[in-house]
Write a structure and sequence with these properties.
- The protein is 42% helix and 23% strand.
- The protein has one domain (2-133).
- The protein has helices at 38-47, 71-98, 103-124; strands at 2-13, 16-21, 52-55, 64-70, 130-133.
- The protein has 142 residues and is of the alpha+beta class.
Length: 142
């Protein structure tokens, strides 16, 4: 299975296109947004969303694309980005506590474990495969 969304090309240069979401999603798309307190937060956060780069894409500014990513790739990226640093941080704190370190030392060692997990995720996590399509062209389902 895969996750798809429409994006609009903001700028294109040297084989890299910068895209922004073309359609509203989440709280901004709901019919009850006028009565919902959360929708204000969604509107505030959606204005601060940066444009995202897509490499090796042949498109021009103003084009609309369909971007697809496999759910397994997204899950794998999430495990590397969130679970690995958390596990290493907790493991480091437990090892420090078992070794007789004080609270301050255990907290510092846990922080080092989280940093090591982030670095390992950055170095070893595979880059998710992002596929782009023109919405008007037919696509093959893998």
């Amino acid at each position: 299975m895969s996750i798809e969304t429409r994006v609009r090309v903001v700028s294109a240069q040297a084989g890299v296109v910068w895209v922004t979401p073309a359609e509203s999603s989440g709280c901004g798309a709901c019919q009850a947004q006028s009565a919902c307190g959360i929708s204000g937060l969604g509107k505030y956060l959606s204005r601060r969303r940066p444009d995202l780069p897509l490499a090796h894409c042949d498109a021009q500014a103003g084009d609309e694309l369909l971007v697809r990513i496999d759910e397994s790739d997204l899950l794998r990226a999430g495990l590397y980005a969130y679970l690995l640093p958390a596990v290493l941080g907790v493991s480091a704190a437990a090892a420090a506590d078992a070794g007789g370190a004080g609270d301050a030392a255990a907290a510092a060692i846990a922080f080092c474990g989280v940093l090591a997990g982030l670095l390992a995720a950055r170095l070893f996590a595979p880059t998710p495969r992002i596929q782009t399509f023109s919405p008007s062209t037919p696509r093959r389902t893998p």
